[in-house]
């Protein structure tokens, strides 16, 4: 039986997948079992930042694979320690790092740290969390409570109590929802799942002021927009603003599962041995790979490449004369194309044109290719996208 048949027989049907089986990849191209090639504008949901078959990643995996893959957080771990130091060096506000295995675990850790901080400094009653419309913070019970999508939440109620919502990019709405019972404000500097909506200029800075007026911590969820995606190492570095806690994950280890929470010294000071932990996170193997990713993407020349190719991609999308394109949004290589029709059929048609596409919500195409994409690749992507839009429209 082939993979598709086996999946249909044996997997929980929690995903709707197209009828192709990816087997190989090189650079920004993926290939299926039938030998068809696809230009990848998805990168496994903004994960495979260095693309496929990267020589340094392969070399690192071969070296690290000779050593223990895991010895748990019971023991010191040299690759993890080096990675933490490098992340702190790249992040002006942060002094310390705690590792996880995924994005949702990193937002869980952030909310736990914020509650512990509030308890330690301000007593028992400061435990509420302010989140925003359109947000996505993950699907475990705490993160889910801060992800206001009925389809995701409703079947799993009761959710974690204590989360309230304001409108994204509406500081008056945040002010109205804010009070001293809030221990943390959690926000994506550029919303991904919600439809590629960047924070408007001044919104994050106003949130920082508001949070601090109420002794609440500011958490930036950069699981999707962080680690070079927008052309800065962190998406919030486009604005003069600093959080107290930052969550990262998707691209951190180029496809191996890893999350990280970066914190100020003040936040780190309330966390003591045993307060929070996980078996796998930050193991020597995954941390070795993440060191390659962070070193490469943290290089100013790499970030300049993302800025240049992202700007070029956006221009070319804006120049596409499709009547179905309403707006092109986003920063760097995190772009959204607002359509006047559902995005699903466009994604489907992409497969027949050798193009991997992804939606973000019902009618937005989300373009989050490997960050190593070139202008030449983008020209090919634009040609194919034009053909797809002409066909579907
Ligand atoms: C994907 C995502 C998450 C959840 O990450 P998982 O690794 O899927 O658990 C959280 N926050 C944001 C902003 C994301 O894009």
Comma- or semicolon-separated keywords:
17 strands; globular; Aspartate Aminotransferase, domain 1; 18% strand; binds pyridoxal-5'-phosphate; 393 residues; alpha/beta
Walk me through what this model shows:
- The chain has 393 residues and is of the alpha/beta class.
- The protein folds into 2 domains: 3-54 and 300-392, Aspartate Aminotransferase, domain 1, CATH 3.90.1150.10; 67-297, Aspartate Aminotransferase, domain 2 (3-Layer(aba) Sandwich), CATH 3.40.640.
- The chain is built from 14 helices and 17 strands.
- The protein has helices spanning 3-10, 43-46, 55-65, 78-89, 103-122, 141-145, 150-153, 171-177, 203-213, 265-268, 284-297, 300-319, 344-352, 375-392, and strands spanning 22-26, 29-32, 37-40, 96-100, 128-132, 163-166, 182-187, 190-191, 197-198, 217-221, 245-248, 259-263, 325-331, 334-339, 355-356, 358-359, 364-367.
- The strands form 4 sheets. Strands 4-12-11-10-7-5-6 form a 7-stranded mixed beta sheet, with helices on both faces. A 4-stranded mixed beta sheet has the order 1-2-3-15. The protein has a 4-stranded antiparallel beta sheet with strand order 13-14-17-16, with helices on one face.
- Helix 3 runs antiparallel to helix 11, helix 4 runs parallel beside helix 11 (284-297) and helix 13 (344-352) crosses helix 14 (375-392).
- It is globular, with a radius of gyration of 21 Å.
- The mean pLDDT is 97.
- Pyridoxal-5'-phosphate (PLP) binds at residues 102-104, 107, 136-138, 188, 192-193, 221, 223-224, 249-250.
